[in-house]
């Protein structure tokens, strides 16, 4: 999933409907750290209330 504006909205809505979902892959040119920040601090739709943690990379 590409996490531009539409992708972030879809991801937020999916996790609001079913919080047991686990996102295992995101296809984007931006680093995962930046994507987590953008999701957590969305200036248009407010802060994301779910967990936006990154797994330890090998």
Automatic annotation (TrEMBL):
Domain (Glyceraldehyde 3-phosphate dehydrogenase NAD(P) binding) ranges: 6-51
Protein name: NAD-dependent glyceraldehyde-3-phosphate dehydrogenase
Catalytic class of the enzyme: oxidoreductase
InterPro entries documented for this protein: GlycerAld_3-P_DH_NAD(P)-bd, NAD(P)-bd_dom_sf
EC numbers for this chain: 1.2.1.12
Keyword Signal: no
Keyword set, alphabetical order: Oxidoreductase
Gene: gap_2
Transport as UniProt keyword: no
Record GO terms (molecular function): glyceraldehyde-3-phosphate dehydrogenase (NAD+) (phosphorylating) activity; NAD binding
């Amino acid at each position: 999933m590409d996490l531009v504006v539409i992708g972030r909205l879809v991801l937020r809505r999916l996790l609001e409907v079913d919080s047991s979902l686990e996102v295992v892959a995101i296809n984007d040119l931006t680093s995962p750290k930046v994507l987590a920040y953008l999701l957590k601090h969305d200036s248009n739709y407010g802060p994301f209330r779910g967990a936006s943690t990154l797994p330890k990379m090998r």
